[in-house]
Amino acid sequence: MNSEAVGQAMRDVADDLIRPRFRTLTDGDVDTKSGPDDLVTIADVEAERALTPLLAAITDQPVVGEEASEADPSLPDVLGTAPAAWTVDPVDGTWNFAHGSIDYAVMVGHVDSGNAHTGWILHPETGNLLYGGVDAPVTVTDDSGMVRTVESVASAPVRPVSELRGMAVLKFAPESTASGLVGLAEDVAEVTPPRMCAGWDYWDIIDGELDFLLYFRAKPWDHAPGAAICRAAGYAVRHLDGAEYRPGDPGRPFLVARAGEWEALAAAVRARATL
Questions:
Q1: What pLDDT digit, counting tens, does each position of 115-127 carry?
Q2: How far, rounded to the nearest angstrom, does the alpha carbon of residue 71 sit from its chain's CA centroid?
Q3: Quick one: which of 118, 125, 171, 211 could link to 133 by a disulfide (CB 3.0–4.6 Å)?
């Protein structure tokens, strides 16, 4: 697969269809989906329409896009049945984008045999592209083409849970679970508020700003890219019962942490949560 072609397609679509609408959206350019906080903009729709054929031209496989899946809820099923497929989140963090925050991203994932294989996360307003996956070390490429390799944490010293700082998105957790997990802040160094953009959450953990991520809604376009990148950097991405995260498994909570620290942290989460 031509990974550079994927990154270039993302940059081109962002420059042509997303960034020109950043902080210029009109009321008619924004709509809601499942609720008042679940936004979709003209940039989401047009960017996905443009990216879909570009990805299919690179590797002719099904494309599971967020907006296409809104129209056809059965579309994500191919992630568990097709030999390989793409995932696309044209504007991850749409609420942020629509409200003028740079904390939004374009995300593309490649799923192979049901597993998160490769991921690309572009931050359009900074020009940085995060990439990595199976047999592909994690790199950051800036808008000038300079490439920086991200060091794996696989051999890093294991730290106690009390020293770990992370982020938990409890908005989508059952009320009893969310209330129990408030106490997780007593077990770890800090639980930070979510950015509400997975494309920035995964960047934060790769950059070392965070040590763990905890999610309760596993939409594949939000997490297949980040899961592939994090595994390539030495992190474990698993459901709380220890099963590996797979993009075709909808709705199950999962935890991202360094492989050597995952089990102790998961035990702390399970102790606080009612699952």
A1: 999 999 999 999 9
A2: 21
A3: 118
